[in-house]
Write a structure and sequence with these properties.
This protein has 293 residues and is an all-beta fold. The chain is built from no helices and twelve strands.
Length: 293
């Protein structure tokens, strides 16, 4: 199942879309290593970056998300194992000038005695008055949305062993002054950066985590960058496929997370109804490798 490659003594199966991994009768695979990344959350309209998809890894000496250590390798007896690749969260198109979108969906390996799953990335928070809208919790959490008033929104939490929370927002623009920058979404490797004060820049998405499971080091599961209002700089996407936030252009669209990275989407302008502007999250990936018997 998946795309099959060989690196050194390992055979590697990479699932960029859902499929089955089949261990035939008479064969048992020991010390199987895996990388499972869920789909990332979308950014917020006039809002924060989306959180990256949950990240779990069992390659020795590497890391899982949220500061977790590599998990225990598994044994795969003869069976069919469903490898589900989670989709990235889509941005909203619900008739509202400022609105939230969707969190990412889970990726998993399930079959026989194996049941491994990751949590989709949380969608980013969006503009509100007097209080910004909260980021959603997920594998990594979405950043907090900004506000015109004095109320502070909260970032979404990450999941233990999978990813970090999103960044905090700064409340209020001070009368007719510039709006504050919005927050970045959490990544598998770091918290999303906070938005800065009135007239300041948006927060960058949290960095992802690197794995060499396919033979070369690749970062995945970076958080999305926040939207920078009033022509302020948008936040950079986190290394690992996170989408960048828009820089205040009223027609700007947030960058989407890279497919098969689990990256979060970037926040963007949301002042027009029935228009998808925030970046969508990137889809996840499932990778299995084992020593050739």
């Amino acid at each position: 199942g998946g795309t099959i490659t060989t690196t050194g003594s390992f055979r590697v199966h990479t699932f960029n879309s859902s499929g089955n991994f089949v261990v035939p009768s008479g064969l048992t695979l020991s010390n199987v290593e895996y990388l499972i990344v869920a789909g990332g959350g979308c950014g917020g309209d006039y809002g924060a970056g989306g959180g990256a998809g949950g990240y779990r890894c069992s390659v020795p000496s590497e890391s899982s998300g949220g500061g977790g250590s590599a998990e225990t390798r598994i044994t795969m007896a003869p069976a069919t194992y469903a490898c589900t690749v989670g989709a990235g969260g889509a941005s909203a198109n619900d008739g509202a000038a400022y609105s939230g979108g969707n969190s990412g969906t889970a990726s998993s390996i399930i079959g026989g005695s194996v049941s491994l799953s990751t949590v989709g990335g949380g969608r980013g928070g969006w503009y509100g008055n007097p209080t910004g809208n909260n980021g959603a919790s997920g594998g990594s959490g979405g950043g907090a949305g900004t506000s015109e008033g004095s109320g502070l929104a909260s970032p979404g939490a990450g999941t233990s062993g999978q990813g970090y929370r999103g960044g905090h927002a700064v409340a209020g623009r001070g009368g007719t002054g510039s709006y504050p920058g919005t927050a970045g979404g959490g990544g598998a490797g770091a918290v999303g950066a906070n938005g800065t004060g009135k007239g300041g820049n948006a927060g960058a998405g949290g960095v992802g985590v690197s794995s060499s499971i396919t033979g070369s080091g690749t970062f995945r599961a970076g958080g999305g960058g926040g939207y920078g209002p009033s022509s302020q700089a948008g936040g950079a996407g986190g290394n690992g496929g996170g989408g960048a936030g828009n820089n205040g252009n009223t027609n700007g669209i947030g960058g989407s997370g890279d497919d098969n990275s689990g990256g979060g989407g970037g926040g963007a302008t949301g002042s027009q109804v029935n228009v998808n502007r925030a970046g969508s999250g990137g889809s996840g990936v499932v990778i299995i490798r084992y020593v050739l018997p």
